[in-house]
Each structure stands twice: as structure tokens, then as C-alpha cells.
Write a structure and sequence with these properties.
about 550 residues, alpha/beta, Rossmann fold, six-stranded mixed β-sheet, about 25% strand
Length: about 550
């Protein structure tokens, strides 16, 4: 269904109360404040919303509205205010000024329960699931079906199974959430939101870690919800998704709503609205001369996970690692870094053999890992920017048992400025930074150490267009100064655009190697679905979420 087609109005869900209204909104006609009159199908309206944190204006006079049966894309760089806005709609934050109207009446959203009563469900970019509970228990947490006063586990499992089938994911309802990979966790979150029968569904970068097939499945679900009259707020950094799925776009920049445009608006215009400037080249890869082999992996094997992995990465080189879900890319990266064990094989850095399963030895040899889960594995969220940047170099910054705070502060200030971290100061807690700025801090802590080999696992996941280019430029700076980069990404154009060579994994093996000139989406996908290793990857040379083709 296209944006121009008529969409049916969705009937009021049975048993759900209407908005906790207090004040009627302005009716049709002219508005004295210059804002447009409400649309007859309007579900949600935000007017003049402002939110501040100590030293930071997160939102300033933001306007936004959502109608029945539409996908309204919320677009902006990290730090533009998107996350703050959706947290106010979901009850996590309260606005300092402005008003929120649901179906024409002013409401207060003081907590998540208030949002749920208004029919607002949110799927966050960072998952809101309890690891030790089952999939079914997570989907119906706090809303378990009951029979004779007891939880009806049979019905809960059956209902959860139906929802999981609806989103097309092969997961047992009684599986523990901690057993699932990121892509499946995302689909469980979507099933959980669908269980709420929401009028308004907020989706914060739901496609960030999904394969092309999973994205297609998600889009089919979103289109069906739209046809049912649900209003969907869709946040994405993949610009090509906007025209494919959206109806309207509101662009935020520096906490303000800059413009509202049709989803058919050209991408270069959207980028200009987002960042206030044109971006000439999306993947600005510079290809310096390569030097010595910095990382050499031979015969790396972990039974049942990956087998006979061999590759080299040279100084000045970016080697991309592509593959489908479950191919073993992240597992190989963690084994090379010493975070996970392996059964046989060797890892050498500049000719020196590393001990197995020994992270300090890997770090001491100059290997750094930027993990795919930055919040869970890359940061101490309740520590400051300065403290996080100094994590890797903490031991060297310690004198007689005391940390040289002045030296640490000077070094942290230098790297934060180099990376363009948006913050109120070095003392700001990392938890309060946007996703893109958090990722810069994760990378920055390795730049402060003597890291020669940097493993980047989903380095631009959840990062906007402008920040992505900054990360790519940083990769160029690293390779120009003689570093080696091993990059894992589910964004296939990113792998192709930034890699000098692409290693493709399939079923735990390296299926083939493609130099930059031969690496196309079709060539990578052909190897990714292969069952036998390719002769194109001789052992002396070389390389779960699936690649995203655009």
C-alpha cells in the first residue's frame, strides 16, 4: 500500500479506555500560534515541547503529529533529540514545557503504564527484555493471562507462539531470552509490542541489526499495521527505507524540529536537513599503501561454531568480514581478541604468538575490540566520559596506586575533541549520551591505548548519516597511520564501500575472499549462502547478522 492510497480507520480496541483527557485541542481552522489545524485522523500531537538536562537543551520547541494509518519517520543525527522525544511519549521523561495531545485532548504521560493506557507502545533500539525469563514471559510481562487466579502458562505459550509466527521468527516461546542472538531479540521485542494492540507504535531503529530478509518481513508487518489504522513513528538511519515505507518525515536537528516533508523527498535533501550541509561521498574510503602483516590468524577452530579460519590483515588495510546470521563472524572476532576460547589454531600479532583466551595478552599486543553491543560490553554506563575513555589505559595512568587524574583528563579531552563527542563535559555520564556519541567513546578508549589492530563489530549500528561519515573518516585516519582494521558489519554497502578486501563467512567457514574491485553485493551473497569453501580463498592469504543490501 502506498502513501496515497486510502487507509481504513481502525476501530477502537475493545476494553481500552480513551485518552486521560483534560483539555480539548483547537478545532479545525486557523491557529493563532501559526501551527496547522489538527488533521481529522490525528492520533497524537506534540506542540512546543522542551526538555533540558543539566547543561544540555535536549529538545527546544519541537512540533510533531501522527495520524491513523501512516508511517511518520522521525529523522535526525544522533544527539538531535529523537531518543528524548520518544522517551517522553513512552513515559520515561516529562517535558519541561509544551503539551502532548492524544486524539485531540491534552494528556500527561507520567510513566510507562500511562503510555500503555493511551495505546502507545515503544520498541527501543536497546532491548528491554529480562534475560532469565522465557520469550513468552517477556512478551506478557506484567500482563500474564490467568485462570482461577493463577498464571495460565499454556495459554501464554500458545498466544506467544502465534505472535512469533506473525513476525516470522523461529523461536520457541519457552526459550530463555539469554539464549537468543540480537536479530531474534529484536523480533521478540516486536512481538511484545504487537501483543499490546497499540494505536501508536514507536519503533526506534528496528532494522538496525536485521538482515535483508528480516527487514522485508518487518516491513510487511508494518504495512499491515498501517492498513489496520495504527499510527507508526519510525526512526531509522537507513535513508533508503524512508521512501520504501514512510508517508511523512519530520527532521530534528540540534533539538529542534527543522521541517516536515513527504517521504518521497530526495535523500540528498534529507541529509541537508539533518546535518545542515551536503555530504558529497557516503563511503569516503582512502586506500593507503599497505605494510607488514599486523594480524595473522591460522586454522582457528571452535567445535560447532567456526572451523579452519585463516586470514591476514596488513598495516593500512581494512578487511571486511561479511556473512549471514549464525555464520560465526562475531564469534571469530571475540576469539581473536581472547574473549572466547577456541580449540585449535593460532593468532599472531606482528609475528608474536598470543596465548589462547587471554584478553590482557591481546590488549598488550595491541588488539582492540569495539563490540556489537556497546552498552552491554563496551561501556560503563554510570561512569563519566573521562572514566570510560581511560578504561584501557587505567593501569598505565596509575602511579603508586593512584590514578593521575590530570593526565587522564588531558588525554580524554584530546580524544573527545578529535572524535567530536557531543557532551556537556568530560564528567557527563555516558548513559546520557546519544548512541552515536557513546560509540565514539568506545572507539576513543582504544585510540588512547597503543592499539595497532582494531576489530570493529557493527561500528555504525544505530548511528546517523553524519556520524557514520565521521567514523569512516576515523577509519581512514587509522589506516593512514599504519593501523590494521578488521570490520564486521551487517550493512553490506558499508562493507563494500570501506573494505580493501572482503572475507565472506558461511556456516562457520570462510567461503571466499573478494578484493575491493570484485566485491559486489551479488558476489558476496553468492558466497554467503554457499555450503563449501571457495577456492578463491587460499589459506595463506585472506577472512550472524546478515548483510544489509540497499
Amino acid at each position: 500500500m502506498t502513501a496515497s492510497e486510502e487507509r481504513p480507520e481502525r476501530p477502537e480496541p475493545k476494553g481500552r479506555p480513551g485518552p486521560a483527557a483534560t483539555t480539548p485541542a483547537d478545532g479545525p481552522g486557523s491557529r493563532p500560534d501559526g501551527r496547522p489545524a489538527p488533521h481529522p485522523d490525528e492520533l497524537l500531537r506534540i506542540e512546543g515541547l522542551r526538555k533540558t538536562f543539566p547543561g544540555v537543551v535536549a529538545l527546544d520547541n519541537v512540533d510533531f503529529d501522527l495520524r491513523r494509518g501512516e508511517v511518520h519517520v522521525l529523522l535526525g543525527e544522533n544527539g538531535a533529540g529523537k531518543s528524548t522525544l520518544i522517551k517522553m511519549l513512552s513515559g520515561a521523561y516529562r517535558p519541561d514545557r509544551g503539551r502532548i495531545l492524544a486524539e485531540g485532548r491534552e494528556v500527561r504521560i507520567d510513566d510507562a503504564q500511562a503510555a500503555e493506557r493511551l495505546g502507545i507502545a515503544t520498541i527501543y533500539q536497546e532491548f528491554n527484555l529480562v534475560p532469565d525469563l522465557t520469550v513468552a514471559e517477556n512478551i506478557y510481562l506484567g500482563r500474564q493471562p490467568r485462570r482461577f487466579g493463577l498464571v495460565d502458562h499454556r495459554r501464554m505459550r500458545a498466544d506467544a507462539e502465534q505472535l512469533l509466527r506473525r513476525v516470522g521468527v523461529d523461536v520457541r516461546p519457552d526459550a530463555k531470552v539469554r539464549e537468543l542472538g540480537i536479530a531474534r531479540l529484536q523480533m521478540v521485542e516486536i512481538a511484545k509490542a504487537l501483543s499490546l494492540d497499540a494505536r501508536v507504535l514507536i519503533m526506534d531503529e528496528p532494522t538496525a541489526v536485521l538482515t535483508s530478509e528480516e527487514v522485508d518481513r518487518l516491513f510487511a508487518i508494518v504495512r499491515q499495521l498501517r492498513a489496520d489504522g495504527v499510527g507508526i513513528v519510525f526512526i531509522t538511519h537507513h535513508l533508503e527505507e524512508i521512501a520504501a515505507l514512510g508517508d511523512r518525515v519530520t527532521v530534528l536537528r540540534d533539538g529542534r524540529s527543522i521541517d516536515q516533508v513527504p517521504a518521497s523527498t530526495p535523500e540528498d535533501r534529507l541529509v541537508q536537513l539533518m546535518v545542515g550541509r551536503s555530504i558529497e561521498q557516503q563511503y569516503p574510503r582512502e586506500r593507503p599503501d599497505t605494510g607488514e602483516v599486523l594480524l595473522s590468524v591460522r586454522g582457528l577452530t571452535r567445535d560447532g561454531v567456526f572451523h579452519d579460519i585463516s586470514f591476514d590483515v596488513h598495516a593500512g588495510e581494512v578487511v571486511g568480514l561479511a556473512g549471514l546470521v549464525g555464520a560465526g563472524r562475531t564469534e571469530v572476532a571475540r576469539a581473536v581478541f581472547g574473549a572466547d576460547p577456541y580449540d585449535t589454531g593460532t593468532v599472531d600479532v606482528r609475528g608474536e604468538r598470543l596465548a589462547r583466551h587471554d584478553v590482557p595478552a591481546a590488549m598488550g599486543a595491541g588488539i582492540g575490540l569495539v563490540p556489537e553491543d556497546r552498552k552491554g560490553q563496551g561501556l560503563v554506563l554510570d561512569a563519566s566520559v573521562q572514566e570510560n575513555l581511560g578504561l584501557v589505559t587505567l593501569r598505565s595512568a596509575t602511579r603508586s596506586g593512584l590514578v593521575d587524574l590530570k593526565a587522564q583528563r588531558t588525554a580524554a579531552a584530546r580524544i573527545a575533541k578529535q572524535l567530536g563527542v557531543r557532551m556537556s563535559g568530560l564528567g557527563q555520564h555516558v548513559r546520557t549520551l546519544s548512541g552515536g556519541n557513546q560509540q565514539k567513546v568506545v572507539i576513543g578508549k582504544w585510540l588512547l591505548a597503543d592499539t595497532r589492530v582494531l576489530i570493529l563489530d557493527e561500528p555504525t549500528r544505530g548511528i546517523d548519516v553524519g556520524a557514520k561519515v565521521e567514523i569512516y573518516q576515523l577509519i581512514n585516519e587509522l589506516t593512514a597511520s599504519g593501523h590494521a582494521v578488521l570490520m564486521i558489519s551487517s550493512d553490506l554497502p558499508e562493507v563494500l564501500g570501506m573494505s580493501d578486501r572482503v572475507l565472506v563467512m558461511a556456516q562457520g567457514r570462510i567461503a571466499g575472499e573478494l578484493p575491493a574491485g570484485q566485491a559486489t553485493q551479488d558476489a558476496v551473497m553468492a558466497l554467503a549462502v554457499s555450503t563449501e569453501p571457495s577456492d578463491e580463498h587460499p589459506a595463506p592469504k585472506n577472512a550472524e547478522e546478515g548483510p544489509r543490501g540497499h
